[in-house]
Design goal:
Strand order of the largest sheet: 1-2-3-4-5-7-6-8
Helix content: 10-25%
Oligomer: single chain
Order of helices and strands: EHHEEEHEHEEE
Distance between the termini: 45 Å
Number of helices: 4
Radius of gyration: 17 Å
Largest sheet: 8 strands, mixed
Strand content: 25-35%
């Protein structure tokens, strides 16, 4: 049996089963603690019967600062939820944990009245892309050379898909794009294309 619950400070030192995966972004401890303090309802862990953290999701809600509105409405990124990190230990994949954790985060962002959810995923991670599409996400745009590391060992950077999913506030899918894979931007233009 797996327990899904909010993360606690002691969980930060117990993420190894998940973080040893080459596709998982690893952060400094203070980054995890920052999320735990600032967005506690959006840092969710899955724990097995042995007390091991076998999966987790970290998310947040955010929007552009008000001055960006002066640049034009098309450049302003409104209040939205963001999946910062979602990972499942390799031996616990294909059990629905990623979908369960993402659904918890979606609900937390709905409670915060966010317009949409977004996330970044490597274009080579077809399994994750298909999983997200199955949960209602679609590609909003392709960010060229977003990932500077290379888990495949080829020594090059990798593009990311910025994927989005409308939440109930966005009844007209205003922040979704049907042909997102054809829209390419550079990393420095993510927040202000």
């Amino acid at each position: 049996m797996t327990t899904i619950r909010q993360a606690t400070p002691t969980d930060i030192s117990r993420l190894n089963l998940c973080n040893l995966d080459p596709l998982t972004e690893n952060y400094a401890r203070k980054f995890y603690f920052y999320y735990l303090v600032k967005w506690p309802t959006m840092f969710i862990v899955a724990e097995n019967l042995k007390g091991q953290i076998i999966a987790y999701v970290m998310g947040k809600v955010e929007e552009d600062p008000d001055y960006v509105k002066l640049l034009g409405a098309d450049k302003y990124l409104p209040w939205h939820g963001h999946v910062t990190c979602l990972t499942v230990a390799p031996q616990y994949r294909k059990m629905g944990l990623a979908k369960t954790l993402t659904a918890h985060l979606d609900r937390a962002c709905e409670q915060e009245n966010a317009w949409f959810m977004d996330l970044f995923v490597r274009v080579s991670n077809k399994t994750a892309i298909n999983m997200y599409k199955g949960m209602g996400y679609s590609v909003y745009r392709r960010v060229v050379d977003y990932y500077s590391d290379d888990p495949t060992g080829n020594g090059s950077s990798e593009d990311a898909f910025d994927m989005r999913k409308s939440l109930s506030r966005d009844k007209n899918n205003r922040y979704i794009r049907k042909d997102g894979e054809n829209h390419r931007i550079n990393p420095e233009d993510i927040y202000h294309p």
